Amino acid sequence: MDKVIKASIVVGLLLGVAVPGAALADGFKNCTKVAKTAWKPASEAEAAARTAGYEVRKSKIEGSCYEVYGVKEGKLFELFYSPEDLSLKHTKAK
Amino acid sequence: MSAQATAESGGPTSPPSAGGEPATVAVWDLPLRVTHWGLAVSVPLAWLTANVFDTVHEIAGYTALGLVVVRVAWGFLGPRRARFAAFLPRAATVLRYLWRLTRGHTGRYLGHNPAGAAMAVALLLLTAVSCVSGWMQITVRWFGVDWVEQLHTWSSHAVLVLVVVHVLGVLMMSALQRENLVGAMITGRKRAVAPRSLSDRSQPLRVPRASGSQPDRYRS
User: Fold this and answer.
1) What are the phi and psi torsion angles at A89 (to 5°)?
2) Between chain B's N and C termini, which has fewer beta carbons within 10 Å?
3) Which residues of A touch B141 (CB under 8 A)?
């Protein structure tokens, strides 16, 4: 039992150190500092993605970004638009 | 006769050693243990890396799915303690067992007790749902489909809740029965003879003091 408890503590500490340090390594969240009340509608971000040739599956708010799920030529993308001016901040291929 | 007896008692029994170590019996076979510990690593790893490390998350998820497939196949092909047909309890049995557990009766089981069996099946099913729905999310057909995303999120949280209950249940049972069940899942062996001090008072041990006969002290 002692060994098990020790092992759990070691694993717990490793995870406790590793995970927060790595948090958001793959997350893109910061697109604008403008207050939400001044944001352009999400539908305009979707329209921007369509104009860029993506088939839009859905969109959602991620941090201060509009995250649009788009498919282009059979490939999957997450597009991050700034709600401030609908500029494309980041493209992530899935 | 001897082969049957061995299978019925759960595996080859080692005699008590000269040093007074209790006799042990092989319960959990190697593929069962490998899939168990593989899942014990890959599932929490996948949970922790969700939305953080996509690559690690996906590798952990595929690994978990592969392990679930192997374990399920082993549940049909493997030996008695691994086979679903041998340990799947009825729902009523599980509920009755849990009720008795709240009153301190643990019963004695060499393999899965009814609650442990239900937990194993629930974990395998939910992990499969979580893995498959996660995989679906990065296919062109299901990418960005909301219910798939919701299913993946909630089945994954449910798996983690079950994992916590599973670990607590194992630790509680280890304490109640004074047997290191975590160690048993590592070595595959459990104590052949139940200790006298079990908390299950409803079923007194039928241990003959000086007789050479071997009563079945475990339910299987």
Assistant:
1) -95, -30
2) N
3) none
Evaluate whether residue A30 is within a structural domain. yes
DSSP B101-152: HHTT----BSS--HHHHHHHHHHHHHHHHHHHHHHHHTSTTTTT-HHHHHHH
Quick one: closest CA in B to A94, which residue? B138
At A39, which CATH number? 3.10.450
Matching residue, tokens 């995989």 = B135
In Å, how far is B51's CA from the nearest CA of chain A?
6
pLDDT in tens, A27-77: 788 999 999 999 999 999 999 999 999 999 999 999 999 999 999 999 999
Q: Is B220 touching A (CB cutoff 8 A)?
A: no
- ipTM associated with this complex: 0.72
Domain B23-191 grouped into CATH 1.10.10.10: no
B75 close to B83: Cβ distance less than 8 angstroms: yes
Chain B within 8 Å of A27 (Cβ-Cβ)?
yes
Tell me the sheet residues that pair with B13. B25
User: Which of B51, B140, B182 shows the shortest C-beta gap to A76?
Assistant: B140
Query: Is A73 part of a structural domain of the chain?
Result: yes
B28 exposure class (CB count in 10 Å sphere: 0-12, 13-18, 19+): buried
Q: Residue A73 corresponds to which tokens in the numbers above?
A: 């030529």
Would you call B140 an interface residue with chain A, using a CB distance cutoff of 8 Å? yes
Number of independent structural domains in chain A: 1
| A89 belongs to a structural domain | yes
Taking the C-alpha atoms of residue A62 and residue A30, their distance in angstroms, rounded to an integer, is 8
Percent of chain B having pLDDT more than 70? Answer: 78
Would residue A64 count as lying in a domain? yes
Domain of residue A55 covers 26-93
